[in-house]
Write a structure and sequence with these properties.
212 residues; mainly alpha; Hypothetical protein af1432; two-stranded antiparallel ribbon; 11 helices; globular; binds adenosine-5'-diphosphate; binds nickel (II) ion; HD/PDEase_dom; hydrolase activity; HD_domain; Phosphohydrolase
């Protein structure tokens, strides 16, 4: 394995020890594997995709004092470990522009950015996406479902992070929208089955809730 990739892997692994916000090392590892697969299919630069995937959540604002502080941490790490400034800038640009902002992606410009954003979003849907949502809700002290909380589909990321919600509501706030926000053909194909599985899950959950 490339030496820098190996170091980035170690950096991310150490960073995520003991996290319960849905951003553990295994999420990063899945995003990296999916990014590599998409990169090959989309003819993207494999090194850039793998590095951005490995580092994308180290900069997450939930894990840092602010988004800017998180990005600065990654920027410093890259400057210390990789001499190619152009590559480092590309990686930082991908990480800073890929997060989901309540329906509008900030516009990930390069094919590598599109690939890594898609890989991250694919991990938020399907069986793993369902599990992450319930784990995150539990860690935040939210109910798995609360019929008194109205379902909203127009929430921004800020809102669904800060306002009272439930795991089931999060499917409508974000997860059901992700399939149509994907950038690449390869990711759209992979999303079909995962999306259908989530719809089936929520439908069955609500049927059981209503004792139908
Ligand atoms: P990402 O790393 O994909 O940007 P987030 O940081 O928004 O995702 O959230 C991490 C995980 O927690 C994802 O699986 C996401 O769907 C889930 N999650 C985020 N916000 C909520 C919420 N308000 N309720 C339940 N799950 C959430
Ligand atoms: Ni992520």
């Amino acid at each position: 394995m490339n030496e820098i990739i190996h170091k980035a892997e170690q950096f991310a692994k150490e960073f995520f020890l003991n996290d319960s916000s849905g951003h553990d090392w295994y999420h990063t590892d899945r995003v990296r594997k999916t990014a590599l697969k998409l990169a090959k299919e989309e003819n993207a630069d494999v090194f850039i995709c793998e590095m951005a995937a490995l580092l994308h959540d180290v900069a997450d604002e939930k894990m840092n004092d602010s988004e800017a502080a998180g990005l600065e941490k990654v920027r410093k790490w890259l400057a210390k470990h990789n001499e190619d400034e152009k590559q480092n800038l590309h990686i930082i640009n991908i990480i800073s522009s890929m997060s989901f902002k309540g329906g509008n992606s900030k516009g990930v410009e390069t094919v590598e950015g599109k690939v890594v954003q898609d890989a991250d979003r694919l991990d938020a849907i399907g069986a793993i996406g369902i599990a992450r949502t319930f784990a995150y809700s539990g860690a935040k002290g939210q109910a798995m479902y609360d019929p008194t909380i109205p379902v909203r589909t127009d929430m921004t990321k800020e809102q669904y992070r800060n306002e009272k919600s439930s795991a089931i509501n999060h499917f409508y706030e974000k997860l059901f929208k992700l399939k149509d926000l994907l950038n690449t053909r390869s990711a759209k194909q992979l999303a079909e089955e995962k999306h259908a599985f989530m719809v089936e899950f929520v439908t069955t959950f609500l049927d059981e809730w209503e004792q139908k």
